[in-house]
Amino acid sequence: MVISASDVRRSYGETVALDGVSLDIDAGEIYGLIGPNGAGKTTLVRALTGTTDPEGEVRLLGEDPKRADPQRLGLLPQEFSPPARLTAREVVSYYGGLYDESRDVGETLVDVGLTDSGNTYYEDLSGGQKRRVCVATTLVNDPDVLFLDEPTTGIDPQGRRDVWGLIDALADAGATVLVTTHYMEEAERLCDRVGLLAGGRLVAEGPPAALVAEHGGRPRVEIRADDSDHAREVLAAADYAFVPDERRLVVDDVAPDEVGDVATTLTDAGVAYDGLLWRQPDLEEVYLQLTGQTVGASGTPREVGDE
Amino acid sequence: MSRAGRIRSETVAAGKAFLRRRTAVFFTFFFPAIIILIFGALVNTAGGTGGLFTEPPGYYVPGYLAVVVLFTPLSRVGSEVARHREDNRFEKLATTPLRRWEWLAAQTLVNVGIIGVAAAGILLLVVAVTGASIVFSPLLVPFVVLGVALFCGLGAILGSLSDSSDGVIAASNGIALPLLFLSETFVPQSLLPEWLPLWVSPLTYFSRGVRAVAYEPPDTLATSQVPGGLGVAESNLLVLAALTLAFFVVGAVTLPRTD
To answer: GO MF annotations for this entry (chain A) (predicted)?
Structure first.
């Protein structure tokens, strides 16, 4: 195992950040930690990299994390900012200079999509460009193990795809990557396995597709109607089942070719609706099923039923 | 990349980051200059009948140098530690080959360079403004280097113990101001209560040593001997070196590595 943790616990005063987390990550694997803000993702990254002192056992490259060979590691902390009055090129060169061997700075900047901004001060870059520079500082030593704590937060969609491509390429070359995110589609697209963190506990772990198949439920249709109570009555009378969700009207177990039947049922009963949204279950559904929370695009946890 | 390479990379980055903060650079040089102008030209220090600022102008050279040797590293390194912590830079550096003492050594080199230039300017300005007679001894160099390194170490300790940049500034001012006036810099020991333990201040050894090296009192020998055969300058240099080592080691050890 490249990374392993056994019964890792960490508290800050009364607040329990990690509550008995265990995981193993193989070489070349892309492992995603999913959860909303406060779930324990950053604390777990710190425990695995030796920048916090947890209870339990952690091994990184077969060593205590503080003894692991730093030449082989790359870390992008959450909310990390390098010196503001260095150019993008100088920032990457600075971090590259800390290692025995480093990649070409220009190539690294090109890899993260910063072809024209190398000579711009970090403080003058856009939010997305800043995050790309930070990602570049993590890649500049060509590490064997990468820890990326929310690497794409604040990056535009194209930039996000660029970073995904980079991570894919690194894993293809044999690197092991642990990435945290609250973007479910990112985890599904990128990760070989994911771990779902909630309240400091790892509530489920596995390949995204397997988790969705096991916990995500069936395809469903969300109905947007002015009078959703009436719509619910009509559909219930037609023996449709519903996904428990107080904020939305969601009909459970609707195959793609059955969407028309739902529409016809509503129309025949005179129920007006604005839209029918059919979707496959995804990791968001898995998280909801297992924790009773949704993650939300901002990473803010939301209990089902909250307005 | 060797250890020297890592320190060089950190030094270059820290140096550029500082030199591009124009306000900080300006006040690093302006602060001692204004002190010299106030004490040298307005208060007009001169040999006289006793009391404050009545020694010959050359007597106050250690005080003028102490303004930069003490204040700049203390506040600059302290603030840098706080900034690194707030921006999660120590968290990242903890997973690189850069050791904590190497980081502090790089910050010290940057400060030595900046303060070395400022100290040379101060000496020239003191001569120009006050007409002081100064001995430009090579021994001034190790005093300035060790003094800067010592207060870089103390700045690292302050930065590590403070919870914010504001806290560092307040703490460094609260420590530096008493030290500046209670270390035989501007106020002779004879004007202070006998019970005041000036030997506690590390700046006292800088002050005594620099004065022994650079100032020739009208009626005494500048390089008087202390028991054991060492001159005043050399003995104070040794004490300063030992204190510098201690402060540097403690400063490096206290730098944050974990949360």
So the answer is: ATP binding; ATP hydrolysis activity
